[in-house]
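Input set for joint prediction.
Command: fold jointly, output tokens.
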Amino acid sequence: MDNLLSTREACGLSLLNMGQKEKDIVVLDADLSGSTQTKKFGEKFPDRFFNVGCAEQNLIGTAAGLAIGGKIAFAATFAMFLMRGWEQIRNTVAHDNLNVKLLGSHSGLTNSKDGGSHQCLEDIALMRCLPNMSILNPVDAIEAEKIVINEVYRKGPSYIRMNRLSTPAVNTDDYNFEFGKAVEIREGDDMTIIATGTMVSEAVKASQMLKKEDINARVLNVHTIKPIDKSSIIKSARETGHIITIEEHNIYGGLGSAVAEIIVEDYPVPMKIMGVNDRFGESGDYNYLINKFGLNDVEILKNAKKLIGDRK
Amino acid sequence: MRKMIRELKDKATVIRRHIIKMVHCAGSGHPGGSLSCTDILVVLYFHVMKHDPQKKDSHRDRFILSKGHAAPALYATLAECGYFPISNLESLRKNGGYLQGHPDSSIPGVEVSSGSLGQGFSVANGIALASRLDENPSRVFVLLGDGECDEGQVWEAAMLSAHYKLDNLVAIVDRNGLQIDGQTEQIMCLEPFSKKWESFGWHVIEIDGNNIEEIIEAFKETENIIGKPCVIIAHTFKGKGVSFMEGKCSFHGKAPTDEEMIKALEELK
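tokens >
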């Protein structure tokens, strides 16, 4: 798979393009516009760009006010620091169902060198429990661009999870993004690997390895974690009988929890939740951290064989 | 002028009576901080602001109650304006009731839900920025509590309004000197309060916030300030209008008993 732009770069460019088209788009940042890539929009449309300084609570509140004033407000900072404004997100943005789009960059472990304080492994959980909130986690630059376009025209609050690093291309240019619909990246009927964001490409690699061992693993890309594609998940449980979820997030409260909540109620099958095992991150190379925390194709393979072996 | 002031004062009394009855009927709520800001709300809604309860016009002036716990005062004012029937005031805090304990945007006339302190101020900034982008002449008024000014977000927002020279925004601080746990100066010292605002780049007006004439004058002054936001520091009495509630922390978040209500209504005539 070719490496593409990072999802944050793709989002930044998409915002820039959409800014030309839709004059109601405004963008806010909290002193990280170079990193989040909103700077490009700011340079082109200075009147519609508001840098609030490093003040995340005010970032959220000001975006909410702009949305009330009829604007489509994109508010960006590191995923971790958006969470600093969680209570503002809850009580103003989500509660009033405002048209605010939260852009959380450097999510997961991708802010690898900065260490645990700047990495974010809790955001999906924190956003998932908010009524009205949608959660989007683009798998690659192509999807990221389309998600921004989708969110310009879809009313209501959302959290868009972006990464720092260039991401392997999973989709092709003709890819048609459908909000709320999981994408079957690979067919298979022995098990389903349900992945999101950076972990989708690991899931694809794992499925190729499993194929050699005569295990046909379906791979689902869940780009919309909320509202989640319940029917695709139930269908996969029914048709493949085993589920592994993997995400660059704490094992608690994220994609794995969302999937488990569905299958436990509607179609219980053996399942393994893969993610960061309830710990904080640390400084290091991204690949070092991913491997250390067991978020790679080899670990998926191990878990897949165990899951199927256990039950056979 | 004199007649108008008389009418506004009478309106304030009517609203204070509603507040006492609402909070009594609800069995909980915040009478103290509602009574302290009543005169400010009356001047805004019946004299200063351009608004039409029948029509949500995009050019309307906006009011945000950042100190959301004064919801009874806001609801009573909105009802008196005609945003919803006065009979709905009885539903405050009731099961399945029309009026939530803190301002809720589902209620006609409430621009944004509030109650978690500091947040309404940022929202007001955002609305003011949107109006400016749209060359919309409407103004935004945001009412803060003095205890609320302990919140860091208030000062984040204060910096932003000054940075963006939001002269279409007016903040009013209900400086009643009391917060839930005691006197503001003992809990977390705010003074020198007006100097803080000045140093943040604001035009500061200090008034007796329970004096209708002074409130009118202050809002008039704000119309002439260009290139910076205005804050009106309104010195008020918590529980204003009811002798046994005035200046009492205990009535920050406590409903009057049957007897207290009767006594309060006798005073508010």
